[in-house]
Amino acid sequence: MTLKKAYLYIFIVLLIDQISKVYIKTNFFLNESINVLNLDWFRIHFIENEGMAWGIEIPGNYGKIVLTLFRIFAVFAIAWWLKDSLNKKSSNFLITAIILIFAGALGNIIDSVFYGVLFDHSVHQVATLFSDQPYETWFHGKVVDMFYFPFIQDYPMPDWVPFIGGKPFTFFNAIFNVADFAISVGVGILIVFNKKAFDESISSD
Fold first, then answer.
1. What are the boundaries of each domain within the chain?
2. Active site includes 145?
3. Rounded to 5, what percent of the chain is helix, strand, coil?
4. Are 6 and 99 in contact (CB under 8 A)?
5. C-alpha span between 149 and 45 (Å, rounded)
6. What is the pLDDT along the chain (205 residues), one digit of tens a residue?
């Protein structure tokens, strides 16, 4: 794969990710939810978060900045990995995975860095793009999530099941965005096609 093609694929993922997020921000208020095609298991549900896995947060006034700067550093590291893999003509499995992970990470960083100053808040209202009353400052924006697929909803688990016995169970309970999906697919490629991804005898040409 050429560097030009890699840039194109990254741009496409970023474009889809950001268009979907801006649409949600400017058409939904926080925690608003709709069923797609009247399906209970396919919903658009608007939430915002700090953009870190498992809800990790660093307390204090500078915690969000530290997390954002760490993620920016990680993106630069992934960019170097992509360039190095292209120069070495690594397999398309590896390069595709890195492209997806890079584009996804960059998509969520855009939210964290810019959204706080681009939008006003979404609580009980639809946010305004380029508002003169932004909801936060630089590097303090929140990541927009919207896709929700609760295939199994509030299923009563038997009492004997460890940890969740006797409680209502929902699967799949995560709410995510295009960037999250890209990262997950990229990581999935590395796991499922591990041997092909890191096989130096397979060229990307």
1. 3-149+176-197
2. yes
3. 50, 15, 35
4. yes
5. 10
6. 899 999 999 999 999 999 999 999 999 999 999 999 999 899 999 999 876 654 455 665 667 788 888 889 999 999 999 999 999 999 999 999 999 999 999 999 999 999 999 999 999 999 999 999 999 999 999 999 999 999 888 888 888 888 778 888 888 889 999 999 999 999 999 999 999 999 876 766 6
* Beta bridge partner(s), residue 148: 43, 175
Copy the structure tokens of residue 187. Answer: 């990581």
Q: Is 22 exposed, middle or buried (0-12, 13-18, 19+ CB in 10 A)?
A: middle
Calculate the CA 124 to chain-centre distance.
24
Q: Name the 3-class secondary structure at 15.
A: helix
Task: Give the burial class of 179: count Cβ atoms within 10 A of its Cβ; 0-12 exposed, 13-18 middle, 19 or more buried.
Answer: buried
Given 17, 111, 120, 145, the catalytic residue:
145
**Exactly one of 17, 111, 120, 180 is catalytic; which is it?**
180
- With tokens 């658009």, the residue in question is 44
pTM for the structure as a whole: 0.89
Q: Please confirm, yes or no, whether 180 is among the known catalytic residues.
A: yes
Helix axes 92-110, 3-27, angle to 10 degrees: 30
